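It is worth pausing here to work through a concrete case rather than discussing structure prediction in the abstract. The textbook approach is simple: state the sequence, then state the predicted structure, then interpret. We follow exactly that order.
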Amino acid sequence: MKVFTIIIFCSLILAISSQNWRTFLREAGQGTKDMWRVYSDMREANFKNSDKYFHARGNYDAAQRGPGGVWAAKVISDARENSQRVTDLFKHGDSGHGVEDSRADQFANE
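Step two, the predicted structure:
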């Protein structure tokens, strides 16, 4: 957990150093709201195999906010995929279950 916090902090500092920090934080907050709204829409839609669309939509909406939104989308997407890998490991063991789906989700995030 400490390493994750350090990585987040360092990436935040590097991203903020290129622009006004208030603007960056506002964009990051708005991007986070965009990601949450799309996640809620995905849960409400509850369609099979639609998660790639929602990944792409959430990242696009957040990126439209500016560099802060891009940063927020990347951090949230990476954290979600990493947590999913951990839960898959506990559910299915070291079977490789979900690896292809995770790669496809990361591709949709780009």
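Step three, interpretation. Residues 67-92 form the longest helix (26 residues). The chain has a mean pLDDT of 76.
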